[in-house]
Amino acid sequence: MNRYEKQNAASRIDGYYNPRPHEAVLEKHREAFDRAKAETLKNIRNALEQTEALTFEEFFAERKKGLCSR
Hints:
By secondary structure, the chain is mostly helical.
């Protein structure tokens, strides 16, 4: 993985990284990281499933409503 890919992956995980108070006090950063990584992967998989399920017709119907950005 190159440095840009690594930065992107870290940025995605960072959005979910929020150590619980007891984790911060006890410096249990790995547990918070593991939870953030799992949440990131769950949301990416969900987004992939939704994207795969979208049909051509549905895409253009949404685009016509102006809900898609260009």
